[in-house]
Amino acid sequence: MAEVDASVSRDSGLGSVSRLLQSREVGAILAVSVLLILGTLVRADVFLSTDNMVGIVRNTAVTAIIGYGMTLLMVSGEFDLSVGSLMAVCGALVATMYGTGYPILFVVLLVLLFAALYGLFQGLMITKLGLPSLIVTIGTLTLLRGANLVILQGQTATISSDNYPDLLFYIGGVAELASGPALIQQFPIQIVWTILFLVLGYYVLNRTAFGYRSMFTGGSQESASRTGIKTDHIKIINFMLVALLAAFAGIGQLAFTQAVSPSTGQGTELIVIASVVIGGTNLFGGEGSMPGTFLGALVFALTQNILVLAGLGVRLFQVFTGIFIISAVLIEVLSRDVRAEHLTNGYIEPLTDLVSDAESFFEYVRSDVQGIDEPLMFATVGTIILTLVTLVVMTVVDVMVGWGFSFAIVSPGVAALGTLPLVMFMMMAGLILLSTVFLHAGVKTIGTRRDFDTTLQGVIYSFSPAVLLFIPVLLSGWDFIAPLVIGVAALVFLPTLYLLYRSTQVLHEFSGRNAALSVAMMVILWALVVAFTLTQISTIN
């Protein structure tokens, strides 16, 4: 198993910051930390209360319990999109069978057996027939969703408090700890199962041969097979485990809510997979973290809680889900070999060279066959800085001064965490892409031997002053007079136009006159776009 250890080992020479950045759980740790601070700012008296904290942890139960099984499955190189539907079907079976008089122990054991056989069936379909897990689990997701409707006959099934069995209480009930003033009034039993399965999952993944074989299978199935590991068996067992945990989570949710409906479990599979990915499990297999999965589930529980405390309900929850998934994938890609010098080499050094001697910098870009990866990283880091500065200044001023802020769909508070990154990334992407198209049209008209990628490189680096756009954005959001906002924006874009002129002159080997004409054509095209947009807006108003 030396090969497995090598595949999951880390560079011991890294500093503490780099080790944190390279840890599987870095994304979840950062997200939980930010959300804890945000919740305290939004409504500290309620958010920090013991009952609320217990409720948040309880809300991780379904996602985390299923997520532990999903972690093992994804570590071995597969995933299951049907867990939400399976959870609902198992809860429906327990509610309806117990409601018709079957003993609860018999019902629970029968449902768990059904889940295990279901996982076995899926595993055999995928490993022995060679079908992709995406297609198979989409099919079974739809099948189980229809089965849930049939079982419930389109109605919500409930278990009354008068007929509430002890077994369900021990799976997902709520223990009454005190009748009067106390630190904790009620304690959901699901929290115990969440922690217990976390410990068991960590032990299986990190301390057993099965866990190492799962990682080896996901890391390189062909190599694992050559060493004698029965990779098909590993995957089948993991499909069975995630099915059993989904069934148990469904029974626990039934025990907690005492009801199951046709809509139960919808979207659960996406939140589970997102939690697992946020927690540090590699999308392509080979690496995973059980504590990270719990933290990922905690991210979603905290988000829902904060949205409710902020008076936003769950309207933005799907927006945050998408942002978390994209962020987790980005962290997964960047954290494979993240070091502090990457920020320096990828953003600070190019920016310094650009400011000190733009012409020499673009000469270097022209002579260096670097593609567009480095420029895109440069643009991404700049946009992240723009977003963070805008968010921090907007929030601090809103708290301390109370100025009303409204920019596009952005307003202060929790909603800004979801909407501001979208607005900033769309704004910067639109500015860069349209400017590249317009400028390339100009250089093609005049005559250039360079391709579109060359123009894109020049535009990206030329837009480096756009990191200062937070100033006009904030002024506009605070309703400062339009001439001031436009003037500040012009101060940002004047150096951008100069850099565009220099980049066009150097990268496309143009004379000063031709470079100026190309940039002028771009400005004219932008003016036409802005004029058309303002005309359309005026017709609405």
Model description:
By secondary structure, this protein is an all-alpha fold. It has 2 domains: 2-335, ABC transporter involved in vitamin B12 uptake, BtuC, CATH 1.10.3470; 339-540, no CATH class. The protein is built from 24 helices and 4 strands. It has helices spanning 2-8, 16-22, 26-47, 50-59, 61-75, 83-99, 104-128, 133-152, 166-172, 190-207, 209-219, 221-226, 231-257, 268-278, 290-309, 317-334, 340-356, 358-367, 373-400, 414-446, 452-462, 470-477, 482-507, 512-540, and strands at residues 157-158, 174-176, 186-188, 259-260. The strands form 2 sheets. Strands 1-4 form a two-stranded antiparallel ribbon. The chain has a two-stranded antiparallel sheet with strand order 2-3. α6 packs antiparallel against α7. The longest helix is centred in the last third of the chain and has 33 residues, at 414-446. The chain starts with a helix and ends with a helix. Mean pLDDT is 86; it is low at 1-14. It is a multi-pass membrane protein. This is Yip1 domain-containing protein. GO terms for molecular function: transmembrane transporter activity.
